[in-house]
Amino acid sequence: MQLKTLNFRLKLAMRNLIFFLGIVLTIFSCRKDKVLDTCQIGEKYINPYSSAYFLEDAEQLTYQLVSSDSTHVDFNKIALNQDAVNCTLGKLSAIYTTASNTTGPIHQMLNKWNVHVTNRFILSSFSMKFTTTTGLYDELITNPGNTSNAFLNELYNDYGFKSISKTSGDNTLSMGSLKNNNVRYIKQELQDIEDISNVFLNRYILDGSAISHFPYPDHDIFIFDYAWGQCMTGCLAHHFWKVKVDAQCTVSLVEEYGSALPY
What we know:
The protein is of the alpha+beta class. About 40% of the residues lie in helices and about 20% in strands. The strands form two sheets. The chain has a four-stranded antiparallel β-sheet with strand order 2-3-1-4, covered by helices on one side. The longest helix has 30 residues, at about 1-30.
């Protein structure tokens, strides 16, 4: 009888142990962030050469990703978080390193065709329609950085929105910065100011070379688009390289397609 009781207790203890270990493993598996792992590995590839080549691209791609995701930690911040920028920069730097060490299509894409996202987007610019040309409108023209509104002063003094100009339309002013900032959040804040009736984001989308970024749970896809031929009125041709960066930051060319390159 005692032996049966002991066996029962051992089985119960073993079952409880397995159940506890299952909970622990589930918790840790849920906490494992594949994207974060990729970023940490990717940051090892960041160096002065890749930073000089891809930093502005990384900032603009990160801006687009952060500002379109209301669950992102930086969604309601003006400036981009450097860790978020480094995450994108690390993946682009892995592509840069791969291109530097090979002579194939990715090497040609970076070293001969020089595809960058900055050829297409100017992101940190917006226009504000004021209710009147007096008050805050006049203050912003005559005394920028020292208006009666703290948020507009912050944009001018702290975040580089030094470019202020009149635009087409009554009572409308535009502000622009040379730095990449979260203008969607800025628009949200400006719309709460009593003197401002509307805010428009000035995203000048021009045809030309660009990079598109598509993040997935276990890898990232970057599509490099080289464009040429009368691009002021719409480019006549586009050539694409689709590049994959996996969780170990191994880079591979998925496919190359589009118009024949102008060799």
